[in-house]
Amino acid sequence: MKNYRLTAEQINKLIGARADRSRVLVPVQSEERVELEELDENYDAARAVDFFRPFDPLKSLVLSPFEKVAEFPHSSQTPDPAEVTLYGVKACSVNHLRLLDEIMLDEEIADSFYQARREKLFIISCDCQIVEDTCFCTEVGLAPHPTTGNFDLNIAHIEGEYLLTVGSERGGLFLEEIGLDLAEAGPETEQQLEEQRQRIAEEVAEKNQEFEIEEDIHRSVRSNRDAEVYREKAEDCVECGGCNLVCSSCYCFYLADRPEDQTSFSRFRLWDSCQFNAYARVAGDESPRPLLMQRIRHRIAHKFDYLEESMGFYGCVGCGRCISACPAGIDIRSLLAGVKQ
């Protein structure tokens, strides 16, 4: 993928052009964290390139937290969403999309609701410039910059200038439409970009040295199912499900039917959490995971064992949102470190 030199003025022009074509969600810095909000006319898109990743789970744009999916006796429904441009997301969100695309866009059984929204989602990601204490993407084999093709455009900021990478055919066509006069980055600039990316990745790795997470997490999780750390964390967990609901790699849902009148009913889909006691409940009020420590173990096994076996990659991208969301202060990295022991 080629990189092009970009000015701050051109970034704002680019985002303005997207606003002419779609709804645009952008990162906004509040007192406590970065959140996604609607674009306004005074927004400085160039400045936002350097923001930390938004806290909002990207999955909310492609998997609605609560939606009607069918009516009886009428036909099933499929949404017809408007196009959305998502600006300023980081590599972790791009990697979330990679996993969701693999799961939800299966060639044999694609989720029509997800597919409709995903096709209308235009992604402009940005390289990470800030590393917070909760970041650990390098510990799960990823990087603090997009490395997959699940974005349309990506912007990186290096020493006073910006670099633009085209990640999809749609992204390239959009650039042609708006007619930005872009010069291709030279070898020296490319080298600066690689050095900066390496420096940021090393900073992430350095912040996680204290956890001493084993390099082969898959093997560690699979071979230590009775690790004491699951029981220890179960004593702190309050079963709120926040770790699942804020994680865009968690895609489980619950189907519920509601009668509309004597002859019809509607079916709704809503997010679910494998940490809830009722999640795996079956007939007779039985559950294969009645204990909280079993549900915590299941969450870790799904992300680092089951998905690795079936999909070839982890179900965790190291974004740290679950760490920030947990009211009990449970850190998934301490879980992984404890499993190794």
Q: What key phrases describe this protein's structure?
A:
18% strand, 11 strands, alpha/beta, globular, 341 residues, 36% helix, single chain, 8-stranded mixed sheet, 3-stranded antiparallel sheet
SSE topology sketch:
Blueprint: E1 3-6, H1 8-19, E2 23-29, E3 34-38, H2 45-48, E4 66-72, E5 84-89, H3 91-104, H4 112-119, E6 121-126, E7 153-158, E8 161-166, H5 169-178, E9 183-184, H6 187-207, H7 217-223, H8 229-236, H9 242-245, E10 253-259, E11 265-271, H10 292-311, H11 321-325, H12 332-340
Parallel strand pairs: 2-5, 5-6, 6-7
Antiparallel strand pairs: 1-8, 1-9, 2-3, 4-11, 7-8, 10-11
Task: Describe the protein.
- There is one protein chain.
- 36% of the residues lie in helices and 18% in strands.
- It has 341 residues and is α/β, with parallel strands linked by helices.
- It has a domain at 3-62 and 79-210.
- The chain has an 8-stranded mixed β-sheet, with helices on both faces.
- It is globular, with a radius of gyration of 21 Å.
- It starts with a strand and ends with a helix.
Strand % is: 15-25%
End-to-end C-alpha gap:
41 Å
Helix content: 25-40%
Number of strand elements: 11
Question: Summary?
Answer:
The protein has helices at 8-19, 45-48, 91-104, 112-119, 169-178, 187-207, 217-223, 229-236, 242-245, 292-311, 321-325, 332-340; strands spanning 3-6, 23-29, 34-38, 66-72, 84-89, 121-126, 153-158, 161-166, 183-184, 253-259, 265-271. 36% of the residues lie in helices and 18% in strands.
